Amino acid sequence: MPSVVVVVLRLVLPLTILRWPLGGALLSMAVDALDVVLVDAIARVLGVPGEFGPFYSQIDKWLDMYYLTLELVMVRTWPEPLLRQTALLTFVWRLAGVIAFEATAYRPLLLLFPNLFENFYLWVLIARRWLPGLLARNLFQVLVTLAVLLVPKLVQEWVLHWEELHPWQWLRNEILGPLLDP
Question: Is the pTM of this model over 0.85?
């Protein structure tokens, strides 16, 4: 039951991207990052086991692509052709990686096809609003921006998909556990 609630949240909350492109994207990222923690919290409230069941890991990447697709819809409204094209290219690259991963179940593929689209999308929205002088305006600036954004994304992809570390378990065990079980 808790996993169904989280799946519903991951389907409904991203729709806020269409109204609030930055806020909705950040909300979608947070729900994605905290899905395990949310299942545990809901399970505690309901007094049921906190399990995802066998299906969740199979649909997690597609739930990610769902909200990324909504972000791509918003990219179509961007006035800068170079930024729109770059966003589309990074989206297609990630989609190719997800398809390759689903076909092979070879986790390191996600390192070769990092989700740079999401970081680029967020960067453009943030730069446009608060740092307009840093918004890329030519191909060289786009490449520099992508290179800078790639570093933290590769670290994240390495931690999650190569080393298969689970930071949410640490959060659950070390932070939330003591708070919820005094």
Answer: yes
